[in-house]
Design brief:
heterodimer, A: alpha+beta, Lipocalin, 2 domains, B: five-stranded mixed barrel, 4 helices
């Protein structure tokens, strides 16, 4: 083989390798962009705040949990909020003990989970700052019982950051939470639940 | 004489009633104990606690939830959580960590900690969601 033909083959080989490399780099870039795009559809937090409140004649009952985990998918509207029952903190130690041992039985049922969908998703522009009054509907599992619930939700988008606030009521008897006859009249028939979440973009 | 005996009986009954009411009142108004004064039932490395929850969550929940435990590990993150302060212990090799929510009275101690530091934290284990969560935490002296 003459030197010219050899040179041509070498150039062809290098050019083939370059094309294969370019295709490889482009494929990797596409996957990275696709994953990044998928992740940007989701918001999450590990420090959601859930408060429950009941008005009672002797003293109002209130407990706070600052470690709720929530994931929200803006492309589908799916939302999930989970809490650990033992992370609810009451001002009075005795109330907290009664809540865990007698009412919610947190050794048997350590978590509560809400899974639902945000309504009117099409009307929400997540790229634009604004306040949206919408609602959520889904299923709440508490004390081993699962019930359908719906609640009004305020979504607030400020500088690209999303926060959500929900305020609704549940009836302990719907979740088979038995309240002793002695205090039954002293605790409201409905418990008010307030959820405040400041979401972050989900990053892997 | 008989009158005197009755007076003593009435006084004793009244004293018992007052003591009983005081006991009920004190129990009702009892505040949470400062975790510094509580004794940890278990001492664990943060990663070992996470692995125990990951391998059998039900068994680990029964073993640790509601218990005062002491956890040792590297600080991954210090973050403000509503009006509380959290330290996250763990290892970058795992997606899960141990979230330690500090007792409000000891919140400033958590502020002095920097990521990477090896520390020991005592608190009440409440279970695992994405991470193991401990509340009412205090810093332990190494």
């Amino acid at each position: 083989m003459c030197a010219g033909a050899e040179l041509n083959d070498r150039i062809k080989e290098i050019s083939d390798k370059t094309i294969i490399m370019k295709i490889g780099i482009n494929a990797v870039l596409l996957i990275v962009i696709a994953i990044a795009g998928y992740c940007q559809e989701k918001y999450f937090t590990k420090v959601g705040k859930v408060t429950f409140y009941s008005k009672a004649p002797l003293e109002d009952i209130e407990a706070k949990n600052n470690n709720a985990v929530s994931v929200f998918d803006k492309s589908t509207g799916q939302v999930e909020v989970s809490t650990l029952m033992k992370a609810f903190e009451f001002e009075k130690a005795l109330m907290q003990e009664h809540f865990n041992e007698n009412y919610i039985e947190s050794d048997k049922f350590p978590k509560s989970v809400f899974r639902g969908m945000i309504n009117d998703l099409a009307s929400i522009d997540f790229a634009k700052d604004g306040k949206y009054n919408t609602s959520v509907a889904g299923r709440l599992t508490l004390h081993g019982e699962t019930k359908d619930i719906s609640a009004p939700v305020i979504l607030n988008i400020n500088n690209g950051k999303l926060s959500a606030a929900a305020d609704f009521k549940i009836r302990p008897e719907d979740y088979k939470i038995s309240i002793p006859a002695l205090v039954k009249d002293k605790i409201g028939k409905e418990i008010r639940i307030m959820v405040e979440i400041n979401y972050e973009m989900f990053k892997r | 004489m008989r009158m005197k005996r009755w007076k003593i009986i009435i006084l004793v009954i009244a004293a018992l009633i007052v003591t009983g009411f005081y006991f009920i009142w004190a129990q009702y108004h009892r505040k949470h104990a400062d975790t510094t004064d509580l004794t940890a039932t278990v001492r664990k490395e943060a990663m070992s606690l996470i692995k125990e929850f990951e391998s059998d969550e039900t068994a680990a929940s029964l073993k640790y939830n509601g218990k005062v435990i002491s956890v040792k590990g590297a600080v991954l993150k210090v973050e403000n959580n509503n009006d509380k302060r959290n330290l996250i212990l763990g290892d970058k090799s795992s997606a899960a960590g141990v979230i330690c929510e500090f007792q409000p009275e000891h919140k400033s101690d958590a502020g002095k900690i920097i990521p990477g530091q090896q520390i020991s934290v005592k608190g009440i284990c409440t279970g695992m969601l994405l991470d193991v969560v401990m509340v009412r935490c205090v810093l332990e002296q190494n």
